[in-house]
Each structure stands twice: as structure tokens, then as C-alpha cells.
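Now read these lines:
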Amino acid sequence: MRDHWPEYAVEAFGIAAFLLAAVAGTVALEHPGSALHRALPDPLLRRALLGIAMGATAMALVYSPWGQRSGAHFNPAFTLTFLRLGKIAPLDAAGYVAAQFVGAIAGVALAGALLGSLPGHESVRFAVTLPGAAGAGAAFAAEVAISFGLMLTVLVVSNLPRVARWTGVCCAFLIATYITLEAPLSGMSLNPARTLGSATGAGVFTGLWIYFAAPLTGMLLAAESYVRVAGARRVHCAKLHHQNGHRCIFRCGWAMQ
């Protein structure tokens, strides 16, 4: 763990940057005092714009030098799924998960420091993720489904040499689509750290168990499905973007090929 602290720091920075962008984007699109909010009365269009912004943010982080170094998890559910697949050492997984939670809380705190009272408005609430009108059951099912889809896409694309470099693009597309279409059901989390960060800023912890249990459940189911069809040996690495010059601290199969 002492040698791998730079990767842990990157994970904290990445999720902090993502949440800062999420809160700022939500303020711009949902705060009633925002000119953009007044110009775009259609909530579907506003979600689409936020989805594009957050997908672009995720893609930029994956392909950045920092994301290339750490593997760009930025999500405890991702890290624990790769732990289950045997691609990350337990101590490194602990370092990643701790850094992700710390980074998420720090990112939301930074958003509050930079934007003042705007993120705390009831229409923004630090971009907190909450069950929609359909209830907790629907939110749980939706989070399992979107997490399954994201993890399965990562495993399929990142382990095919010809298309592996497009993993970040595929993730960005799914994030944008999920925010646009799925957010009314669960708020579109996919990420326990992302939800806890926003919940801590807003002081709203309704349904928190959903966002801890459902993303991990969906991603573990995706990993099990992939392994049963393709085999465990087809999971080469825990990095989303491996074709770069940065060191790899994972139990990496690409280096053996």
C-alpha cells in the first residue's frame, strides 16, 4: 500500500472532480435562479444535457494521465467487483475504496465552498440520488440493471484488444443515457461513494442502503455472467484503459501476452 499511494490519490481526485462537476451541472440546470434552467423548461432535455456533461467528464477522467495510471475506477462497486475477479490485491482494493469515499465527500464539500448556498437549494440538494415516485423497490431494481449493464460493457469491451481503447467512450455513452432516461427512477447513482458524498452534503440519507447494495449486486452479477460465458482467463486487467505508458499495479494478464 505504501508504494501504491499515488494510485489511491488519483482515485480520490477523480471521484472528487466528478462530483464537483455533477453538483455544478445540477446547479446550472436545476436551480430556479439559473438562466439555463429558465431557458429549458423540459426536464428531459435538462437531464439529457446533464447526461452529456457527466458522460464527457467521465470520459475525460478515464483517458486523462491520472485515470490511465489508476485504472479509472472512481467507484467502490467497480473495485470490489475486480477484487472478486481476482484482478486487484485485497490491500489495494481497501486503499482504492477508502480513497473513493474520502474523495467523494471532499468533492461535494469543495462544491459547497465554491458555489456557496446554491448547491443546498431544495431543487439541487448537492445532486443527491433518491428513489423516485415509483418507490424504493423500483429504484433498487433500476440500479441493479444499470450497474449490470455498465459492468458487462466494461468487461466485454476492455478485454477485446481491437476495441479496448473505446472502453471509456462506451462508459460515457451509458452514463449519458442513464442520466437522461433512468434518473427519474433512482437518481442514477451506480456508485456508493457518489451517493454518500452527495448525501453527506445535503444531509439527506433516504434509501442509502439501495445505493450501497444495488450497484455492487448488479456489477457482481455482470462479472459472474461474463466469467460463465467467456471464462475467467478472459478478464485481463482491472484498468479501464490499459494501452498507455503508465505502470499497472493490478494482477494484469496483458503483461503476460
Summary: The chain has a mean pLDDT of 95. The radius of gyration is 18 Å.
